[in-house]
Amino acid sequence: MKAAVCYERNQPVRVEDVTLDSPRRDEVRVRLAASGVCHSDYSLVTGLLRGRLPCVLGHEGAGIVEEVGESVSHLSPGDKVVLSWVTPCGRCYFCRLAKPHLCQLGERINKTNRMPDGTSRVHKDGQDLDVFSAIGTMAEFSVAPANAAVKVPPDAPLDKCALLGCAVTTGVGAVFNTAGVVPGSSVAVFGAGGVGLNAIQGAVIAGAERIIAVDAQPSKLEMAKTFGATDVVDASKADAVESIRALTEGRGVDYAFEAIGTKRTVEQAFEATRKAGTCVVIGLGSIKESVSLNLFFLPLLEKRLLGCWYGSADVHRDIPRLLALYRAGKLKLDALVTRTYRLEEINEAFAAMNSGANARGVILF
Question: Are residues 278 and 350 in the same domain?
Fold first, then answer.
C-alpha cells in the first residue's frame, strides 16, 4: 500500500509503497476513504511533537472495515468507521473515571506510535515503521486497535466524517465537555484555524450570545464569521485583550478558548477572561515554553484555567452525536473542507495549511 512517511525533520514527506500486516487480536484493518491534514502531523515533521522516525503520518481519518482480528465483536467487515487518535481501553483509572480521552493505554500508544504490545504492523524493506497514534491515516489502509474504530451509520459521508476524528471533536468538545458553555454567554476564540472554527461553531450550538474570533489573518477572520463569530479582532492591528474588554463592558468574556499554542496567546486568553470565568487551552505549544501567571491576582480573580485534550471526549459517545448534529444542519462539516488532495500532494497540503489558506485540507483515497 502507499503511505505518507516522515523520514527526517523539516524535510518533505515521502509517499511510498510499504507493507502492512494482517490484524492481530483486538485489531481491525480499515480501508481509508479520507484523512484530514492537521497541524499535529506537521508538528512531528518539525520536531515540535517528539517521536521516532520513520513514521507513517495521519491521525484524522475515516474508512471501511475490511478485516477484523480475533475477539473483535463490535465491528464487522463493511462497517464504516471514524478512527480515534486516542485508543480508550475502557479499563484503566481514567476510563473508569469517565475520562477515556486521558486513557493510560491511549497515552502510551501516542508516546510510542506503536500498537499496545509495542510492535508495528507497517514495514518498509524489512524495517518497522512507527505509525502516528497507531492509526496512520495518511495511507491507503490502516491496521488499528479495534477500540480506536468508532462505528458510524452505513450512509455516513466518510469524506466529512474524517474531520470528526480530530478537529471537530476537539473544538466542539472543548465547548461542550471541557468548558460547559451555557446559553447567553460570551466567548472568545484565539485562533481561527481548523480547531478554532469548531470551537466557534460549538459555541453557536451551545447558545452563546457573543462569539469573538481573534486571529492575525483577515482571511481566517472572514471564515470565522461564516461559522458564527459575531465579532472579530485582527490581532495584527489591535490589542486583543483591550478589544475583547471593549466588547464586553470591560469585564472580559465568560469563556476564552486558546487554539494556537503560544505563550503570548495563552496569557492573552487568560487575561481576556472575566473574573470567575473559564479559560480553556486547546493549542499544543512547545514543551520548552511556560506561561506566567500573577500570584496575587490568581486567587483574587477566581478564574479557571483548564487544559483540553481531544475535546475531553468520549469518542464512542461523542462522534455519533456530532454526526447527528451535522445531519440536523447544526454542525458545518462541508464548509470546513477548503480543498481536497491526493495522497501524493501531501507536502502541498501541508504548505497550504501552514499559510492559512485552508480551514481544513482533506486527502481522498
Answer: no
